[in-house]
Amino acid sequence: MARVEPSRDDAVALTAVALDDVARVLEIYVEAMLARPAEVRPLGDLASGDRSRAGHVDLEGAAAAGRPTTDGAAFYLPERMARFPDRRGNFMVYRMAVLHQLGGVLFGTYRRGPIRFADFFAGFGEPGLARALFGRLEGARIDAALARAFRGVHRDLLRLIDDALESTPPPASDRDCRPGFELQPHAGPESPPAPAPRRRSRGPSREAALSHLAGRLLMAQRRLVAVPALPRGRGSGDADPAFDSTVRLKACDEGGGRGAGAADPALDLPDEAARLLLRGATVEDTRRAVRSLYRVFASLRPGAGSAGSGLSAGDRGAGDRGPESAADPVPQSLEMPAPAHHGDPAPERVELRGEWAELASEVELRDDVAPGPVASGLMDQLQVDELGVLSLQDGDLSGTAGLPLTDLDVTGAIEAEAGDADSELIELDPEELAARLEELSKRLERELDAAGLNRDREQVHYYDEWDHELAGYRRRWCHLREKTIEPPPAGGVGAAAVSEGSNRAGIGGFDASASGVGAASVFDGRFVDETRRRHADLLRRVRRQFELLKPEEFRRVRRLIEGEELDLDRVVETHVDRRAGRPPDGAVYMSRRRQHRDVAAAFLLDMSASTDAEAPVDEPEHAPGKTPAPEYVGVFDDFDWPDNPQPLPPGRRVIDIEKESLVLMADALETLGDDYAIYGFSGFGRKEVEFFVAKEFDDDLDRDAEDRIAAMEPKRSTRMGPAIRHAAVKLAEREAKVKVLLILSDGYPQDFDYGSDRASRVYGIRDTMVALRETERVGISTFCITVDPAGHDYLREMCPERRYLVIDEIAALPRQLPKVYRGLTA
Amino acid sequence: MTQALQAATPRPAPEAPYYLAVGNEVELFLAAHRARMPVLLKGPTGCGKTRFLEHMTHRLYRGAEAGTRAGIDSPLVTVACHEDLTATDLVGRYLLEGDDTVWMDGPLTRAVRDGSICYLDEIVEARKDTTVLIHALTDHRRILPIEKRGEILPAHPDFLLVLSYNPGYQSVAKDLKPSTRQRFVALEFDYPPPEVEAEIIAHEADIDVTLARDLAELGKRIRNLHHRGFDEGVSTRLLIYTAQLIVGGIGVREACVAAICRAITDDDEVQRAVTEVAATLLP
Ligand SMILES: Nc1ncnc2c1ncn2[C@@H]1O[C@H](COP(=O)(O)OP(=O)(O)O)[C@@H](O)[C@H]1O
Ligand SMILES: [Mg+2]
Which ligand is nearest the CA of A761, by number? Predict the structure, then answer.
């Protein structure tokens, strides 16, 4: 199993859980809990995964610290979890991390309050400190609410809290670390934030004090959770006194609290913090607590570069931050000890998206508003009405009934407070609305760029891959991105540009011929016309043949009680029945029913580097009967044209001929009226599978589509499995009776990480085989055509019987493809 | 075959079968019955349609409102429809007896004669020709044409036709024609809200209401996955089964896995996710 990264510690490798393996389970879990779909993605996607941005520092620090977070549309988790020495435990951390993040949605972390988060944090002298406090306190509030809402989480929370307590270094002495809460006047919710007090030069360092507070919080959390699960939702009020009382003791006991606290460290919490653990606490209470505690901590001297506690949720090695983080004026060491499943709530990010979505959907509703350029770009990209989790922040709790009434009541009250912003929007005049949206869009785009989230523009599709050694699927192993091909301006000469650019080709030293800049790749902008001219003869014949397929066929339906014609056989039968005393059923009619041609076809072109190879120039005359090869005789042997190949002009590459075939096919299919799409695929490694769309099913074969076909150029490797799976998904969405997938390639499937052993083809061949089978299973016929003379060896293994063709002479491809197509769809 | 299709309600229980009303369905049904308007029960399987009808039948034929109907022997005739069910199966057929042919009433004909409620369960499954019968019975004529005997059978004054169908489950094409549907008083059923469902579970399985609430919550969450490869979420019936397993001494989570996770889907990742939801909600 060389593919699993070698680990420092074999035991860890065995018990670690990879996100890829469980992401789908987690997504389904979220969907069940939240009543709407949500994506689960690796934190790596959030960090600047884009190579061009290497070195960019994520300001939120969440990705770098390996802490789970959400942007309101997806949940981001560390790629690997090795917190506990057992797989169960590590999966549990993932599940609890997700639950915790969605707890933020359920319990109103992101709900609109009287003040926006961005303004809230900006109002502090050290926003980083406020953020750290908010994250930790809100995390504790959410856990407490989760424990009240769900009876099953106590055990898991207990394990997580104990784990965090174990890893929290005990303060050297209590006196050193207690920041002296009692010195602070009680900050009521109404009191305005006081100016930051003077820094003290003595007393505990800020880091030590924060850590102390977090430790106390953990103890209080533990106290809460250790109480056995109690019946949920017993009306409101104090139905579960035992549950709350320990904390209530301190929190509600105004004045005399100090004494009790000294005796029991779990109760030695500032009131503001303790209150957050009680039923009915809201995000407003958390903000209040942050306001008052901030003043305490801001007055403490910052410690000298004390390291963070390392309590990030990911595996312990993941928290490695570069020196760039110094750019943030707030030292990252402000992280406070927390259970491994806690994350970074990043409320500003969610808030921004939420506000944007609200405005955008309003703009979308109103046709008198013209969104600005940035706004319309984002609106295309983000799909306003599918914002997933986000829309919940407006208080749509339809999917979450059954939460403890009091928790819901409180959030309801907040909504009422926030007033109906919607009606306010309706009043806005068009220009103002458009301007506001544009402004917000710019901010959002900056934010997306900064967080590396602009990769969102290309949606990632995850596909499983078959590992024959494991005899099982590697879940979500391949990351496939769909790309549109952008042809260079007409008449342009040079390498055809595909939107990604070909600059990445050759990275890692793989297949040096990969770049599309070979001398042969001249894009003359007239490829399609040229093809039509050179193959005019063939094109005419193919069209004529396809015409024959066209007339509607009729099918007889018999045994009808009513219908157009009598079915003589049945009439006689009925008569016999009657004579024999058997009750006739009277179904003596038949009808002719129209059968439309109802075909959807996808063509999948291998755009690997090897298709850059020049096709043999010497075009031998085909003796009739040389092709077809024996494997496919019988499928369409009624379909015979005189072989009359055109001489091949020099300098044609394999891909050129493949494209010519597609052009002819496309023309013929236009005649036939079948629904068809033309795709290409390539990529580099499992995380960069590329899927190029030259013509989508619903596209017309217009000039643009033709140019895109012409611009398909050799790229990198040939990972067939995910491309087939993706094409199959697209086909599955079509409504057609007959569905076919035709794959055109020039060699066996390969990629640098397609199997542990690069020299072995088995892995790729088996995965492709399984992908083809999956496709067949959902009612799509597959067919592989290759121009690789060695194809017989592996195609026999890879493809369903009689569903492949090895073309000896590549020049024969334009003739063979229509034959195959006819055979498959007739 | 005809025999297998019908299930005559057994002798009246002293009490009406337990049914907890979710909305105003009881009042609507009574009103429809008073006007002898046919009734359409729409809703997914296992959400209480059959139980509702049993309950209503009892009230109308055995309860205080029964009157002369109390004398009707089999007040509820249920036919589970399926693809091959033809009009003949419903109306009746000639059977051979020695050299003679004998007419045998189908379940629908019997109900029409006797004045029972005829319940065609999952009507969309039946063949098209059955709708012809439904038309004649449900418009002002209230007749059943028995073609084979050249007979037109007027419906007994107490006869009532009730159909059910599951809208989520069939393709739109197979849905009832609007012309058919318009003749009916339609009652929409769905899985009850968690509080109500909890009460039903607690009653049916005789378990403590707290656990019943957890199970109802679980059901609700799983129903959020309705499009994930199972047409039906988890039905009230399945939740009751789960509760009964728990009563029978099976551990809470094990019972969920056995009765719910495995029953609703073959997708092992969906199963796993559902197991995790159960682990979150149940102690
Ligand atoms: N509203 C309800 N009141 C009482 N029991 C119910 C109710 N809804 C569902 N049930 C229970 O669920 C079970 C399945 O319901 P059933 O009537 O068979 O479903 P359907 O006919 O819709 O498929 C019933 O046996 C009953 O125990
Ligand atoms: Mg290749």
Answer: 2
